[in-house]
Design a protein that fits this description.
This protein is of the alpha/beta class and about 475 residues long. About 45% of the residues lie in helices and about 10% in strands. It binds pyridoxal-5'-phosphate. The site of pyridoxal-5'-phosphate (PLP) has 15 residues, from α8.
């Protein structure tokens, strides 16, 4: 399906004309980045060169040269009568740099914040394998999840102060499986969902894919202004709200007790279902005291958890904790989708939960050391970048001295470093986020040291505006997404 991008929309996405180099090249680079990020979808029709020139207030020669650059690099296909169509070499409609990984050993990707499997993981697989005969004597279809795992998860909530029955738990394919299942269960076409103005973008995309309309809150110091929430909910009816209150991705912030209370109050008053993604809650690197889980404030809340961050994303095991009355509609919605998630992986996760927490603690210790190492490297090499220490989560959310996140991302790719530009995490179109960068600390100290060295080179390129071999950068980006 071809989507046409209006000139005004593209001009907004491209941001202000604070070009560091030749305007045509900057425009081409920004369009390329938007396409790689999934902010412009594969197959989209761009506005004509003339329309874009008018919308941006630049000359027609500038936009013609920008489109010519994109055509030369294979990212744009122009056909008589059908306009200029974005063509991503990977031929997928949403290549996102949040998960983009390099296909050569020399390139470093700081695009995903996910840990490698901790040492104790293999042991859990072996222990699960010993229990396999019991599993094989069942059909293995588990629409609500493996009983032993549901019991362990319910106990975990109960121990934490939220009494929970195993039949309030539905095991899903990761937290994302939970988000998309809830989006499909809750939303009718065009129903509105309040979201934080900056967040984990794939979750927002899931609500849109299910037919929802997002209401992103304005960006404040923190992602959860109760005043902004009230204004949005007073303005129009909303079906649900999606929030990440614990070690929020990407900022690392924790929603306070007062904010939780205020949100719960507003959502109750406006009959809005809270969909609360607590998948980062266990990533408490400094052992800070967290307010209780969200259902303590709002019994209606649908809580989402995951094994991906404490253990390993490859397990693909997440879950939903819901009030009893909400369980059946969710399971029914699931029956027309994946029916259940992998029985063996659930068994492995149950083993990990039963071992007393040492594997998860080892993973947190490793991440804490990596976080501190990355902070020290940044302070030494790039003191202009403000990098606050997050008490948990898997990444730094840094502030750049200028609006340069996309330019830095492009320059970094020329030095073999893949980044996700700040605007990717913002729901508002435009260049919000150009002062920010998410830097995951999930890799080895050695890799992080080298990543910061490359970031420094890219930063110097941008600051000095040396026009670092732009053609090479373009080729690299295209090779990486191919
Ligand atoms: C807030 C949030 N939700 C969901 C996910 C996806 O998690 P999973 O691997 O469990 O699907 C992530 C991954 O980074 C995340 O940060």
């Amino acid at each position: 399906m071809t989507t046409s991008l209006a000139a005004a929309t593209l001009a907004t996405l491209l941001g202000p004309k604070d070009f560091a180099g030749p305007a045509y090249r900057e425009i081409a680079d920004r369009i390329r980045l938007l396409a790689i990020d999934g902010r412009i979808l594969d197959g989209s029709r761009l506005p004509s060169e003339r329309e874009l020139a008018t919308a941006m207030g630049v000359s027609r020669t500038t936009t013609s040269r920008a489109y010519a650059e994109l055509r030369d690099s294979g990212l744009l296909v122009s056909r008589q009568g059908s306009g200029s169509i974005v063509h991503l070499p990977m031929a997928v409609s949403n290549a996102s740099s949040v998960i983009m990984t390099p296909d050569d050993a020399d390139t470093i990707a700081l695009t995903y914040s996910a840990p490698v499997g901790p040492p104790g993981l293999a042991r859990a697989f072996e222990a699960a394998a010993e229990k396999l005969p019991g599993l094989l004597s069942t059909t293995g279809y588990l629409p609500d999840g493996l009983p032993v795992l549901r019991e362990a998860l319910a106990q975990h909530y109960t121990d934490g102060g939220l009494p929970t029955d195993p039949d309030q738990i539905i095991v899903t394919a990761g937290a994302m499986g939970a988000v998309s299942l809830l989006a499909r269960t809750l939303l009718g076409p065009g129903q509105r969902v309040v979201v934080e103005g900056l967040s984990y973008p794939h979750a927002h995309e899931s609500f849109v894919a299910a037919g929802g309309r997002l209401t992103p809150l304005p960006i404040d110091d923190r992602p959860w202004s109760p005043t902004a929430l009230r204004a949005s909910l007073d303005g129009s009816p909303h079906r649900a709200a999606y929030l990440v209150p614990d070690f929020h991705n990407p900022t690392g912030a924790v929603m306070s007790d007062a904010e939780r209370g205020a949100w719960a109050y507003e959502m109750r008053r406006h009959d809005v279902v809270p969909v609360v993604d607590e998948s980062l809650r266990e990533m408490n690197l400094d052992g800070v005291e967290l307010p209780p889980v969200f259902a303590t404030y709002s019994p209606r809340a649908l809580l989402i958890g995951s094994s991906s961050k404490s253990f390993w994303g490859g397990l693909r095991v997440g879950w939903i904790r819901a009030p009893k009355a909400a369980i059946m509609p969710i399971i029914q919605a699931r029956m027309m989708d994946d029916i259940g998630s992998s029985a063996f992986d659930q068994l492995v996760f149950a083993e990990l939960l039963s071992e007393g927490g040492q594997t998860a603690a080892a993973g947190r210790a490793r991440l804490r050391a990596a976080r501190d190492h990355l902070l020290a490297e940044l302070a030494r090499e790039l003191p202009d970048i403000k990098a606050p220490c997050p008490p948990g989560g898997l990444n730094l959310w840094v502030t750049l001295p200028d609006r340069m996140s996309s330019r830095l991302t492009t320059a970094a790719s020329g030095h073999g470093l893949l980044l996700t530009p700040g605007p990717r995490f913002f729901s508002h179109a435009g260049t919000a986020g150009e002062r920010h960068l998410r830097l995951p600390f999930t890799q080895s100290h050695e890799t992080l040291t080298e990543a910061v060295r490359r970031l420094r080179l890219a930063y110097d390129d941008v600051v000095a505006n040396t026009g670092h071999d732009a053609r090479r950068q373009r080729t690299d980006v295209l090779e990486l997404i191919a």
